[in-house]
Amino acid sequence: MNFSNAEETIKELCHKLYSIDSPTGFTDRISDWLIHYTRELGYDSYRNRLGNVIVPVPGKDRAHSVALSAHVDTLGLMVRSITSEGYLMFTTIGGPVLPSLDGEYCRIYSRSGKVFTGTVLSLSPAVHVFDDANTRPRDEKNMAIRLDEEVHSKEDVLALGIQTGDFICYDPKTIFTESGFLKSRFIDDKACAALELTLLALMREQSLTPAHTTYICFSTHEEIGYGGATLPDALDELLVVDMGCIGDDLNCTEQQVSICAKDNLGPYDYEMTSRLIDLSAEHGIDYAVDIYPHYGSDAGPMWRSGKDTKAALIGPGVHASHGMERTHLSGMMAALKLMSVYLGI
Q1: I need a surface site. Which of 16, 94, 119, 234 has the fewest CB within 10 A?
Q2: H/E run at residue 339
Q3: Which of 224, 256, 232, 226 is nearest to 243 (CA)?
Q4: Which positions, given as ranges, span the membrane (predicted)?
Q5: What is 97-159 written as a DSSP string?
Q6: How confident is the model over 151-163, as a mean pLDDT?
Q7: What b/e string do you get for 225-254 counting C-beta neighbours within 10 Å, with b at 16 or more?
Q8: Which of 106, 49, 46, 40 is nearest to 76 (CA)?
Q9: What is the pTM of this model?
Q10: DSSP secondary structure code for residue 222 in this structure
Q11: By percentage, how much of the chain surpasses pLDDT 70?
Q12: Of 247, 241, 208, 195, whose CA–CA distance to 222 is shortest?
């Protein structure tokens, strides 16, 4: 596979994916866009009832089937209640690092279709007013959304059409630096979704056929723990493409692809993991092997659902996961190359 234009394609796709708010449970728009984009490339993609987008790619050996899967659902918030002063109390979707959200701009999607803006704030937001402005906990009980509307009561907010259960999407703040870093929220896992789309685009442009029947999957419920249970049945292998972890007692950097040997559920398939290590060494791909103690992927719910499928996990190294995340184009390219050689293209 020729990767000469891959970095620019990755950048373009990242900016597009991050421009579409898609917390778990609010993924219809990104699923619709994925269907449109992949069909424009010429693939016969489809969407299941839960929003997963599946792109079948015929292979040379149709008796064996493999899949790549990245998730396009993200962390988010939802309106839990409205205070008497007109602030929105929230509940989390997935596990964001809440202190990192203090001061972030956000959008509130009402069920009427109107979108409002606001800011995530501590309930003690001003040092000139509150003695505990710097010490009050940043959690669901002590943070709220300040609406950019003239509201002074719960009734004022309800009159706008905002209600309990409305989704709150905070700004990903996506940028690529001149030094090659991708800085954004939700690199977990839209960066890997961009890699899958780049792979599909390169296969089509270069008329490449994978070694086996292949399904490129985009799951929509990973952040709440069951995305893998709704992937296609009867797969021989699943390669989960998700973020690699960086931090205490880990080897991976942002410039590498991480191969996960074990997460909090247990070991990934030994043969698949060994094959990925061997492929990386053979093709000069910069990689690290790590164990993630506080991590689960789409492989876990797939196994719990009873699927008889081998699985392994790779992804570019990502710093500050579930907060203000960062990775590097070289790590993304290493992951893309390993995805390619795994598929035999």
Answers
A1: 234
A2: helix 329-343
A3: 256
A4: none
A5: -GGGGTT-EEEEE-TTS-EEEEEEEESS--TTT-TTTTTS--STTTEEEEESS---SHHHHHH
A6: 98
A7: ebbbbbbbeebebbbbbbbbbbeeebebbb
A8: 106
A9: 0.98
A10: G
A11: 100
A12: 241
Q: Identify the active-site residue in 222, 223, 237, 325.
A: 222
Q: Which two tokens stand for residue 191?
A: 């960066």
**Closest CA relative to residue 241, chosen from 294, 196, 200, 284:** 196
Question: Which domains, from first to last, does the chain contain?
Answer: 6-74+186-343 (3.40.630.10), 76-170 (2.40.30.40)
Q: 36 by DSSP, 3-state: which?
A: helix
**Helix, strand or coil, per DSSP, at residue 308:** coil
Q: Position 315: which residue type?
A: G
Q: How far is the C-alpha of 192 from the C-alpha of 218, rounded, in Å?
A: 10
Q: What is the DSSP letter of 93?
A: E
Mean pLDDT of the chain: 97
- pLDDT for 272 equals 98
pLDDT digits (tens, 9 = 90+) for 182-194: 999 999 999 999 9
